[in-house]
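Appendix C reproduces, verbatim, an entry submitted by the partner laboratory led by Prof. M.T., so that reviewers can inspect both the input and the predicted structure.
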Amino acid sequence: MSKAPVEIVIPREKAVFWLDCNGRWRNASGLFRNPRIIEHFHSAIRRDAAGYYLCQEREGVREKVYFPYEDTALFVVEVVINEPAALILNTRRRLPLDPAGLLVANDALYAVAEEERARFADRALLKLAELLEFEEGGYFIRWGGRRHRIREKSGGGPG
């Protein structure tokens, strides 16, 4: 019979790293620079009722570190335009590109799925830019042979 792993939980206020509003990991020394560590951190993001945390399991120990983030813990880091179109998150999760799930708030573009929101990182936004339009009164995306209005929310962050 295997034993359940011992769980160590580090609360958000004791985490020594955080995720900035552009999706970059930081600590007191500045930006993380090692791509392997950055990728490991992004792929280890999980969510439960208490919020977002990094999860690591080894040698019978499961460590959960809840971490602070400035805007959101999820970022769209890649856009796949070919069918089927998809948004790839920093966690490596894929979401379908759904114009109804897009939202503009505080001058940023977000993808909203279920109760979560993912901010478009600059590189992903550039890839999508040729499909986006702005005219007085709103933002639009040309997708699937149609022009879709993007929802907007002013102040207070997306939701």
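Residues 7 and 141 are 45 Å apart (CA to CA). Additional entries are available on request from the coordinating office.
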